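Hello Y.,

Per our agreement to keep a running log of every chain we model this quarter, I'm adding this entry. I've kept the format consistent with earlier entries: sequence first, then predicted structure.
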Amino acid sequence: MTCDVQMLLSDGTEQQAYGRLLQSLSQVEWRLFLLSDHPRGRVSHGSSVIDELFAFQMLTGRICDTCHQLSVSTQPSYILTLPLPATSSSQHPQTTHVVNVDECLRQFSATERLDTAHCDRCARNRIIVNKGCDDGRRNCMEVGNSEIFRKTTHVARASCQRRSMLRYCPPYLVIQLMRFDAHSKRTCRVAVPRRLLLGNDVVMGDDDDAGDYELVALCCHVDGHVISGGHYVACATADRVTWYEFDDVTVTRVNIDAQLQSERLQRNVYLLFYRQRVIATL
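Predicted structure for the entry above:
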């Protein structure tokens, strides 16, 4: 199986043994998460309200270009952090190009090549087999009276392919746009859609309706170029019709469609809150 096929991480339509195994692993890990209190490691009788409303599963797969080993990690998450495309660099803050949130999603789930990745399998210099394991070596096994060494070239740096996907779409999806780096804030324009569809190139194995979201709130970081400065302005709706802007102690009714088209919002929007349409219509 080629790396390109493997990096699909099974979009729910491929019936390969690899895809079924990955989904089974994902399901087991998710059930364990729902049965435990992860922050403190205590076992509880069920998930919390926060877990039920906001938690989803992040799957990240890596394939080493040298040994072709596939490693997959699964972890629960509450905020989906999306990178801004490279064309929207902070070096060109006045660019007129508008990036859509859908573009950020596709970049997040695209296969990424890492040229300085670390592969445990490639970096292993030798396997030691020694009777008795007197020196406490971890890779020690008893095989007669012999020592077996596997001589390989130590690989300090290796290239690999990496891809991330989501599973178990939450009722409420929180998205954070990566506007801040180590130096300043990126003020590129980002178009925010009222309706957001997560396709099977972003979500693995869930029903199509699970990835259908509508915007219910957003937060902008204004008047500041670093995250520790400026202040936050929020817009939200309770009935999916009437929207209000919350700016410190001031609450103003706003036309959300006009706000989403404004340059001020597009250059400063930072957090997005989406609700599943399937639960919104119940």
